[in-house]
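INPUT
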Amino acid sequence: MTLNPAFHVQNLSVGYDLRIIIDRLTLSLGQGRLTALVGPNGCGKSTLLKSLAHLLTPHNGQVELQDGATLTGLSTKAIARRIALLPQTPLVPEGIRVFDLVAYGRAPHLNAFGQLREHDREQVRLAMARMDVTGLATRPVSQLSGGQRQRVWMAMILAQETDIVLLDEPTTYLDLAHQYDLLELVRDLIDEGRTVITVLHDLNQACRFADELVVMKEGRVMAQGKPEAVMSEPLLAGVFGLDARIVPDPESGTPLCVPRVKRPVAARIKAAGKGFEFRASSCELTAPS
Amino acid sequence: MTRWLPMSVTLMAILLVFAAWHLGFGAVNISPPELWQTLVHGQPDYEFILYGYRMPRLFIAALVGAALALSGLLVQGVVRNPLASPDILGVTGGASLAVVGFSIAWTGASVVWVPFVALAGGFASLGCLLWLARPVLNQPASLALVGVALSALFAAAIDFLLTMYPLEINSSLIWLTGSVWGRNWSHLPLIAPWLAVLIPVATFLAYRLDLLDLGDEAATSLGTRVGWLRLLALLTAVALASASVSVCGAISFVGLVAPHMARFLVGYRHLPLIPVCLLLGAILMVSADLFARILMPPIELPAGIVTAFIGAPYFVFLITRYKHW
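OUTPUT
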């Protein structure tokens, strides 16, 4: 018998107002692993993520944690001590500094007036060091770049000291290099023994970094398992409506999804090739010898 | 963060200066030394004017200003919109409408009922607001828009009543613009207990309101019960606004301007904002009442007109400066 799952979702129906997004969903999400929720827009992956943090109250069914407690049976604060969630677009209070924002992560551990004790300060410092934002501690968050800002939010989540971390499209608004930096950081959290469940848009990133994929469409789980086992050309066609090949990622060996070309591109490549040669030669000219 | 203490002390000093000016100036001018003699050494010459007229008026102006400012701070914290204020949520309008309706329906009724009618009107309008806005309660901007519509409706209803029953309007009109004129010690119990109870409540909500600044989802996942917080903060704000309307009528702009000035001085945290905001509201209201009396003597303008004079240009400034829509 393996470990209990981090989440056991039973017969869950949830939605906004009267619109049901997820209808009678049952699934288990593994403990100590990185699970990526993927699927086309509007498939219910963000809704599922929010249900896991009890941001949405289920119409029906329940979400059970590892120790058998259900989310509906726990107080908001008790949930916040066990599960941290980074929303897709959290708001930055005007004028707030990095340290103070990260310190908000301690909120579920504090009294009503939010006074930090020495232990809390220590946790905030650790989280900032972990996300490499210690040097920014006194800077206003509004002045940071997108990449720095996302690391600050991640530090806030870490300061919350929870076993489970939920991320809603954490790579949106980041350039490619910062996307990979962030995903490496997320991998580090797994190595520390935490459970991370994240919504991801990029299938190739999901395949490379996640231990398990949950592929969703129209509020239902279409496939769940290791990326190698789940990713297939029929699945891409059926779920995403995408005509693509799956080849091994030359770096990691994980599945890499390459959409098929729809019109001949030979002529364009030729033209681009010329341009590239031209630029390459001009680089050579300007390069210091 | 630690700036709030020296800031509060400074503001307290400014308030005392205005208070002394307020006490000394009027139909009979009392010089500062004479004021000192009367207050500290019990000299009887001006005792009647001071304790009978000006002192209660000063206290009521200060408390009403403080209540409105705190109410505005809470509303802005909940709605997360810098243009929000108790007037915009329709609370002031609802309370005013209730009083106008009451004074027309029971022409002979004693004025002692007015404050209670205003309170009832304020809470009834909050009830209307929450009921009308129930599908959009988690969208603060929409909540504010419903409030704007509601206050327009109340304003129209007030105008309708005033045109239909022109004979009864005189005292209503003065009361509607907001005035501290003729207020005495008997009005103090109508506002002071509210502040005594609701300032601690606001203090208790302060840190949670800080978290709410991160957005509903982040606040919830940090352990805040957003729905309850919003309701409790709104109820507190409405109680404060209705209480001040019940004493002085509709005083505009104090609830809007004071929280902004306070944020400018001490930043975004609600806990230090509360004392600074209270003091600023008191200063605004005391000085408004003072200027209302000294601008064109012997005519006394209602203080509400003066606050509107200060507040309206600031409102325009705010709209041009604010870029986060």
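end of record. Residues 7 and 65 of chain A are 5 Å apart (CA to CA).
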